[in-house]
Here is the input.
Amino acid sequence: ACCSYRLRNALHPLWQSPLSIPGGSRQSPINIQWRDSVYDPFLKPLKISYDPTTCLHIWNNGYSFLVEFDDSTDRSIIVGGPLENQYRLKQFHFHWGAINEWGSEHTVDSKFYPAELHLVHWNAVVYPTFEEAVMEGNGLAVIGVFLKLGAHHEGLQTLVDALPAVKHKDTVIEFDVFDPSCLIPSCPDYWTYAGSLTTPPLTESVTWIIKKKPIEVDENQLEAFRMLLFTSDGEEEKRMVDNFRPLQPLMNRTVRSSFQ
Ligand SMILES: NS(=O)(=O)c1ccc(S(=O)(=O)NCc2cccs2)s1
Ligand SMILES: [Zn+2]
Here is the structure.
């Protein structure tokens, strides 16, 4: 199974990066097999406190669209859950498919969701900069939220309305007040495991916190993601879709759950 993953990584169109990180033992994303996850009664509730005015801008980096935050203070943080320290919100972004049958990076019992939200946080208690935290085993904490096709999502719509302004790679638009907690389900249940970034540099520095409950978005909102482009203005247009990494081997890891 392991070599097929390596082959899949090598063949996947989006991946010019190494077959897999040499000696990589905690790569992401993974399939979460619900029945194999282990309830950990010592896991705390995750505490999320974001200041909407720390929101800065939206930019198309040629792989996804990122909403970036002012992380120069502790105004937008998460604490608790599996985390030893508090972590500062840096950015959030999404991964999605060309059609609703796939698009998420993680799967649950081998089921893909049409999209997945990642809220990226870094350990500013221990590390002086984000770039240093990215290189350390306990440097980052990413909250993953699955998106499923369903009702219109009011909070997401303010983001969707801004996307035409960042259609092309390397475009940016000011986005000065947004509270990303509106994108996180109120249900406290999550899985957690030790993993990696799913794009280069693929460093094994992420404590993943994957929410059990998805949020619902409607077809028009998913279609708005798919009208973004990987390409810059003036280049031959390539729709920004299927920007998810192939599943990686679990190897010697256990996925813990905060719920029974
Ligand atoms: N899909 S994901 O949540 O696993 C992420 C991939 C890359 C992320 S990043 O924001 O840390 N940028 C990577 C870097 C920027 C500067 C130095 S490394 S988060
Ligand atoms: Zn991501």
In short: The longest strand covers residues 87-96.
